Amino acid sequence: MEDKKILQTITLGCSKNTVDTEHILAQVEDSFVIVPENYEGRVDYLIINTCGFIGDAKEESVDTIFQAVDRKNRGLVGRLIVFGCLSQRYSSELPEMIPEVDEWYGARDFDPVVRALGVEVKAEKSAQRYRYGRHHAYAYIKISEGCDRRCSYCAIPFIRGAHKSVPMEKILEEARILASEGVKELILIAQDTTYYGLDLYKRRALAELLEKLSAIEEIEWIRIHYSYPDSFPEDVLDQMANNPKVCRYLDIPLQHVADKVLGSMHRHVDGAWTRALIKKMREKVPGIVLRTTFIVGYPGEGVKEFNELMSFTEEAQFERLGAFKYSEEEGTYAAEHLRDSVMPKTKQSRLDRLMTLQSGISFAYNQSRVGSEVKVLVDDVSDDILVCRSEFESPEVDGEILVKFEPSMGADAQAMIGKFINVRITAADEYDLTAEYLN
Question: Which of 1, 179, 237, 273 is 20 to 30 A removed from 262 (C-alpha atoms)?
Answer without folding.
Answer: 237
